[in-house]
Amino acid sequence: MSPILVAVAAVLAALPAAAFLLVKVVHLLAIRRPGMSRGAVGPWVEGAVACLSVAVIAFTLGSLSGFDSRPVRPCIAERAERFGPQSDRTPDGDIKITSRVFPVSRACVFPDGVEVELVPVWINPLQVIALAGVVACGVRAVRAGFSSRSSRTAGQRA
Q: Residue 34: which domain range?
């Protein structure tokens, strides 16, 4: 898949996620209550959506790491930053760039065997933690839904 298509798709997915998180922050600052809904399930669903939004934004940042019109330029710049300005004397055609979607990775492999990762090291752990938060909040939402239903049906029987 074209890197430009991946970048456009990631940015389009990140815009609603960033808007949701912005609304949550403004709501928290204005009302001083983290959840917008007051039901048993609503806050857990909001938490799951917030965690998913963080995961999407982290994916977008990771996907856009090293994005340039000339693909090897970020590779050479990162190698020069790590190993000094004289270490980037490599023809562009000899640099191999490998990419993965999950875990997000964009690695440059130079002919002398040096590998440079362009994605920041905190991106993938943040994604995993955020996705674990989605699962945890989803489980809590289901449990809260079952407990609120069982308490309503128990009240109707009495």
A: 1-65+124-158
Higher confidence at residue 70 or residue 99? 99
* Residue 131 DSSP code: H
90-118 b/e with 16+ CB inside 10 Å = b?
Answer: beeeebebebeeeebbbbbebeeeeebeb
**Number of domains the chain is built from:** 2
Which residue in 19, 120, 6 sits closest to 63, CA to CA? 6
* Position 128 pLDDT exceeds 80: yes
Q: What is the C-alpha to C-alpha distance for residues 104 and 10, in angstroms, rounded to an integer?
A: 12
pLDDT in tens, 82-100: 877 766 666 667 888 888 8
Verify that 1 and 61 share a domain, yes or no. yes
Decide: helix, strand or coil at residue 40: coil
With beta carbons less than 8 A apart as the criterion, state whether 119 and 106 touch: yes
Q: 11 and 58 share a domain?
A: yes
Residues 93 and 16 in one domain: no
What does the alpha-carbon distance between residue 75 and residue 57 come to, in Å, rounded to a whole number?
23
Q: Same structural domain for residues 81 and 157? A: no
